[in-house]
């Protein structure tokens, strides 16, 4: 091997080591930025609670992680430094919204091969049919998103979907954010009570029993 080739290979080796160092410094910087004090809050996005509008207002990516999952990701110490909040929704209203969302997005083929709401509730919340009960996390009671193993609520603030705009604006004030909540999609589907019969009312009540007890919801 000639001398010039040896020098070139040595030079390339030095460059490679420098690039590796730069890469890991960049990775650590990104992790620090993501998990420490540049953002002073954590939002726990429970599905079908207006989360897309909140994420847009705060310029944060969509993320469906429970409080415990988030603590495991960033550590208890980092979590304790954050202002943490979430939004909850009347379970019967939430189930109606979820049904329409799944129809509109053709999940489990509900748009192409539709079944009516009451039948969907029975198959999903009553029988836990594996086809319709396809993503268990998206059907969890809301307390399971927010509590530890002892049942303690882990977030600092709970916003109510029924009063979303007012309560979220109060959160924005606490965060010192000069933002407004984007328009939350309004539907023309009527009151959620129009969708239920006695059997499906009780199925949802039984499924979300702890939500109803913890947050005081009524049909």
Radius of gyration, in angstroms, nearest whole number: 23 Å
| Mean pLDDT value | 89
CATH class call: Alpha Beta
- Main beta sheet strand tally, sense and closure: 3 strands, parallel
Strand percentage lies at: 5-15%
How are the strands ordered across the major sheet? 1-2-3
What CATH calls the topology is Rossmann fold
The total number of structural domains is 1
Describe this structure in words.
Helix content is 51%, strand content 6%. With 219 residues, the protein is mainly alpha-helical. The chain has a single domain (39-215), classed as Rossmann fold (3-Layer(aba) Sandwich). Strands 1-2-3 form a 3-stranded parallel sheet.
Structural features:
219 residues; mainly alpha; Rossmann fold; three-stranded parallel β-sheet; 10 helices; 51% helix; elongated
In short:
With 219 residues, the chain is mainly α.
Set out the fold topology:
Elements: H1 3-35, E1 41-44, H2 51-58, H3 67-74, H4 76-80, E2 83-88, H5 91-104, H6 117-126, H7 142-146, E3 157-160, H8 164-175, H9 198-207, H10 209-215
Parallel strand pairs: 1-2, 2-3
